[in-house]
Amino acid sequence: MQSYGDVTNEESHIDDYRDNLKMELCHLSVGYGNQEVIGDINLSIHEGEIITLIGPNGAGKSTILKTIAKQLEPVKGNVYISGRDISRMSYKDMAQEVALLLTDRVNPELMTARDVVEMGRYPFTGHMGALSGRDREIVEKVMRFCDISELSNKDFRKLSDGQKQRVLFCRALAQEPKVMILDEPTSYLDIRYKISLLKLLKKLRDKKGMTIIMSLHEFEMAKFISDRIVCVKDDSISRTGTPEEIIKKEVLCELYDLSTEDLAYFEFIM
Amino acid sequence: MRDISSVERKRCERYAVVFTTLIAALGVAILANINTGNVHITLSEIIGILSGKAVDGNAYKIIWMIRLPRLLMAAILGGALAVSGFLLQTYFGNPIAGPFVLGISSGAKFIVALNMIIFAGAFHGQSSWEMIGSAFLGSVIVTFFIIMVSESLKNPAGLLVAGIMIGYICSAATDFLLTFAEDSDIVNLRGWSMGSFSGMSWDNVKLSAFVVGLTVFITFFMSKAIGALQLGESYAKSLGVNVRRLRFFIILLSSILSATVTAFAGPISFVGIAVPFLVKHMLKVSKPVIVIPATFLLGAVFVLFCDLIARCAFAPTELNISTVTSIFGAPVVIIMLMKRRTYER
Question: How many angstroms away from the CA of A236 is the closest CA of chain B?
Fold first, then answer.
């Protein structure tokens, strides 16, 4: 196993696994019940790729993420992970492959930050859920990697929203997933932790070949971190492309229905 | 690394202290219950009777036929009630959810009233199998209804409301029956609906020990999945838990436990809410694998002491068990609500 703690070595191995197909979304329609929110999504995601969904609020970014994480049933179409159809995978099989960070607030009773991170080992522990020495080692390692060791013994409910978010991210990592699905992972974080989260994600991709699919609101971060950006608007995927192709005034104006008048403000944001 | 192991060690020490205390308290409660009553029996006599040396006389009958079955029932059903409450609180993610908020006791009361007023015409006494049967039937009917609703209703809050409504419907139907009932039936029904452990037989003990033992055993072996639910349904799913199936089992197990209690002792209030809260705050942990056995133990101890008070406080008049559990349980719930506010933002 590679070390999470190895920070100095920044060289990337992207090219080694670029050709490796990890996930496929085939004619996927997502929504609630029979109500379609977004239709006919086709997307191939390679191992070690960072894919970012951007788009206006309520466009359906979370719905897509929840569907490919098997939290929601697809309305139509299929999602494949490593060639397997997720609707035929058990929740347990999924859990050993995919980890999830949601925007849901959690308020667990009497759990320390460490207890929450330890939950990430759930798919790998025995029948009564006792942690093995290896499980503890991994928990220790990911907590150091995410720099939350000092929160370890604090009551989770007493942490700030930003700290909670970092602990929940760390919990997802403790699952040692091959794919991470993150719904607005930067929410609640101040700029320092936003940047450190992006650094961690880059490291996970480069060192572990992790595939990361997430939604972001910040264009500049999306541009910095993503291999490809997917624009979600109204009832479809309006565009997919490299950050250079997407993070441009014209494209973003169209995506967010901004007028030329708004562009003046836009300068500030960019 | 030393930091973790010391925290872990502190926790284990706490578990050890709490479990030792609970077991000691259970011992004291059992001794106190067996040793107290209208007829004074000395400790040496009791030891003689229990070890089988003295096999006749009134003292023997009182110990074997009255006190022992009664205290065993109080312990078994008290534990069952507490575990049932713990399960429902996990299900609803709400510490106020108790075994009887789902209308189970109202269902039981309705069938008991129906049997008492319409079919039997006369009251046969608390221990009669007819009484137990009709209470169990009522609980089971409501339980099945709840499980059916839980299959189609996805959110727990909806199910909670449905349970409360079932409770109202059953109460209304009971009140309707009472309009045409004899005064003595009304008094008897009221007495039953406050719960009591008097008149328990060994057959009662055997049956409830079997049902409760099996159910609590299964619950204990589901600790891991129940624990995953603490981070909410979505995260539980993402950790590999089949949440739908887990929820079905939680409701089923909890309902079996509360139906059993209601059938034998009538509705008993507040144990299911107060005990799990106390246990979690004694242990300072919410891991089900630790909390479930401790909850059972404290439930048993709590109800044993309450029954002791019910028997002795105003002897020879006996109080209803709910009267006592409410007096001790309700303040705990108020403290709990006040403590809970700390975490709400």
Answer: 25
Chain A residues within 8 A of B345 when measuring between CB atoms:
none
What is the nearest CA distance from A148 to chain B, expressed in angstroms?
14
Q: Is B235 in contact with A104 (Cβ distance < 8 A)?
A: yes
Structural element, H or E, at residue B35: helix B2-35
Q: What is the ipTM of this complex?
A: 0.86
* A15-97+179-190+205-270 carries CATH number 3.40.50.720: no
Kindly state the average pLDDT of the residues A112-121: 94
Q: Phi and psi of B209, rounded to 5°?
A: -60, -40
**CB of A14 closer than 8 Å to CB of A226:** no
pLDDT confidence band for B178 (50 / 70 / 90): confident
A36-50, A154-168, B24-38, B328-342: which has the minimum mean pLDDT? B328-342
Out of A70, A109, A119, name the one closest to residue B228 (CB): A119
H/E element holding A66?
helix A61-68
Burial of A49 (0-12, 13-18, 19+ CB in 10 A): buried
Alpha carbon of A223: minimum distance to chain B alpha carbons (Å): 28
Instruction: Round to whole Å and give the CA distance between B286 and B276.
Output: 10
Q: Which helix (DSSP H) or strand (DSSP E) does residue A43 occupy?
A: strand A35-46
Contact A159, A192 (CB under 8 A): no
Residues in chain B within 8 Å Cβ distance of A118: none
* Percent of chain B predicted with pLDDT > 70: 93
| Domains and their CATH numbers in chain B | 14-343 (1.10.3470.10)
- Probe site for chain A from B6, B234, B238 (most A CB atoms < 10 A): B238
Are B240 and A92 a contacting pair at CB < 8 A?
Answer: yes
> With a CB-CB cutoff of 8 Å, which residues 216-235 of chain B face chain A?
221, 223-224, 227-228, 230-232, 234-235
Task: Return d(Cα A193, Cα A211) in angstroms, integer.
Answer: 21
